[in-house]
Amino acid sequence: MATPVSIEVWNPNGKYRVISTKPMPGTRWIRLLTDQNCRVEICTQKKTILSVEDILTLIGDKCDGVIGQLTEDWGEVLFSALSKAGGKAFSNMAVGYNNVDVDAATKYGVAVGNTPGVLTETTAELAASLSLAASRRIVEADEFMRAGLYDGWLPHLFVGNLLKGQTVGVIGAGRIGSAYARMMIEGFKMNLIYFDLYQATRLEKFVTAYGQFLKSNGEEPVTWKRASSMQEVLREADVISLHPILDKTTYHLINKDSLAIMKKEAILVNCSRGPVVDEVALVEHLKENPMFRVGLDVFEDEPFMKPGLRDMKNAVVVPHIASASKWTREGMATLAALNVLGKIKGYPLWSNPNQVEPFLDENSPPPAACPSIVNAKPLGLTASKL
Ligand SMILES: NC(=O)c1ccc[n+]([C@@H]2O[C@H](COP(=O)([O-])OP(=O)(O)OC[C@H]3O[C@@H](n4cnc5c(N)ncnc54)[C@H](O)[C@@H]3O)[C@@H](O)[C@H]2O)c1
Ligand SMILES: O=C(O)[C@H](O)CO
């Protein structure tokens, strides 16, 4: 027998039944759905991660669409149940969708939405914060103060790394990786080396132009280099930030061998997905190299950390909060809701999922389009002419 789940219902007489597996920030997303004849059911169960069984219970016999979370396992079982209940739409409230079996969704004719763009700057800002916290040992120093250990200024107290003039390395120079690179280059005048499967032309142009600007002001210009391998970045960079998607090609991209070629005093930041780093190998590396430091937002077995990580003074760890600004989280909820609504209403696909601002303007109605559907092509969804 299915476990009962607690829900909050909005617009009980709405024609389309849309479920959100979690309460999400803001109310605009709820209003956008209820205004379009949706009955919205929000799961309020006091359980952080819902199981497949919990979600099956939520879907029930009739469900038009679901907004889900990155902690949930959206595979064959859930997509077949959603399709059987008449559902044609699912959206993750996240840009990453490695928790979703997109092929299974496509097989059952279910569109899979995600929330790109709205979280780019917020996530890059957290990666920049972790870079600073790790390089200047902010968390260690804060703990020291609170423990009452500070008894006066000392030449050697919490000496860290200067960023200015050093090299920032970016693995995965997509939306977030490029935004992070710009922050570190503009903010700290670092030189860039990056590795991506594609050329980051706009980023390269930005660094060239900024370098010229600095030079014209009598300052040392910043430089950029596109590496031909990830290893080149690991060897040369002083601060390395990981921003690829998680897939078969990026699983354990950072492992014992790749850690071994990094500088002994390098800083490594991960705001992508935990399994991009072999965390067991990382803990060993942190133990053997006390001057090597990391800033981690994501972990291999979330919500857990691999044994030993919590004791490492040279690690700054935060609980997957990179996109956690109010504006961004409300925007993510809006995009996820509009993906589901758009598919239910038969709207076309938004032509540029990298430019989602028109959906986020609170003062005007959103475009009649699905902001971002990752399996649009196999489902034969056409792009909007708007
Ligand atoms: N920590 C968080 O809260 C948080 C927030 C947002 C996004 N993310 C993660 O960040 C990822 C990136 O988001 P985005 O919006 O920048 O996506 P994006 O698609 O714009 O960028 C990803 C980049 O990775 C590159 N890439 C793919 N495989 C690669 C490989 N093997 N080696 C090097 N580069 C490779 C792609 O070419 C692309 O440029 C998401 O998929 C998500 O997992 C995490
Ligand atoms: O992929 C994402 O969007 C994050 O992990 C949560 O913002």
Bound molecules: nicotinamide-adenine-dinucleotide, (2R)-2,3-dihydroxypropanoic acid
Q: How would you sum up the major sheet? A: 7 strands, parallel
Distance between the termini: 48 Å
Extract low-pLDDT stretches. none
Based on Cα principal axes, name the global outline: globular
Beta-strand residue percentage: 5-15%
Strand order of the largest sheet: 9-8-7-10-11-12-13
| DSSP summary, beta strand count | 13
- DSSP helix fraction: 25-40%
What's the order of the H and E elements? EEHEHEHEHEHHEHEHEHEHEHEEHHH
Specify Rg, calculated over alpha carbons. 23 Å
> Structural class of the secondary structure composition?
alpha/beta
Enzyme class: oxidoreductase
Pathway: Photosynthesis; photorespiration; 3-phospho-D-glycerate from glycine: step 3/4
Pfam family, one: 2-Hacid_dh
Catalytic activity: (R)-glycerate + NAD(+) = 3-hydroxypyruvate + NADH + H(+)
Question: How would you explain this protein's 3D organization?
Answer:
The protein has 386 residues and is α/β, with parallel strands linked by helices. It contains 14 helices and 13 strands. It has helices spanning 28-34, 52-59, 76-84, 102-107, 120-135, 138-146, 175-188, 201-216, 230-236, 256-260, 279-288, 326-345, 357-360, 376-379, and strands at residues 7-10, 16-20, 38-43, 65-68, 89-92, 111-113, 167-171, 191-195, 224-226, 239-242, 267-270, 293-296, 315-317. The strands form 2 sheets. A 7-stranded parallel beta sheet has the order 9-8-7-10-11-12-13, with helices on both faces. The chain has a 6-stranded mixed beta sheet with strand order 1-3-2-4-5-6. It is globular. The mean pLDDT is 97.
